[in-house]
Design a protein that fits this description.
145 residues, two-stranded antiparallel sheet, binds zinc ion, mainly alpha
Length: 145
């Protein structure tokens, strides 16, 4: 297994100076403090279905430290993959629960797109973020209750 070195990127000055690369659940990949799997994966019912706003049994906001760890380790592929799921989760939540979407997910995905020179995708993400924001405030009308 490759040892990733932290890039001087994240604004997370780790509390424990020279910690090794972050430890993640072997099953879902979320950052955990110890052990091989997170408590959710240890106990999960195999038929668990994510509720709106969730990804793999966690609210999308709970994945933020994992995104930051992946970016800090330079694993942009994994960060991108995860961020797409989080964008979908926050969009669904905005649409159905009328809570504002977490723009951070869109912004980080856009940042990764720009690292790859994909300005078009970065622009699409800005529009998608704005559309999601608009959907959260649309409380009446088409979506019948
Ligand atoms: Zn897990």
């Amino acid at each position: 297994m490759a040892i990733h070195r932290s890039l001087p990127l994240g604004n997370e000055r780790t509390q424990y100076g020279r910690a090794p690369a972050s430890r993640r659940c072997r099953q879902c990949g979320i950052v955990i403090g110890f052990g091989e799997r997170c408590d959710f994966c240890l106990e999960r019912a195999s038929d668990h279905e994510d509720a709106v706003g969730e990804h793999r049994g966690r609210h999308h906001t709970e994945w933020i430290p994992t995104v930051e760890a992946l970016i800090g380790e330079g694993d942009l592929d994994a960060a991108e993959f995860l961020l797409w799921r989080l964008v979908e989760a926050t969009e669904q939540e905005a649409l159905t629960q009328h809570v504002p979407p977490l723009e951070q997910h869109f912004r980080r995905l856009g940042w990764i797109a720009r690292q790859r020179g994909d300005e078009m995708l970065a622009t699409q993400l800005r529009k998608r973020s704005a559309a999601s924001k608009a959907s959260a405030t649309r409380t009446s009308g088409a979506d019948a209750r």
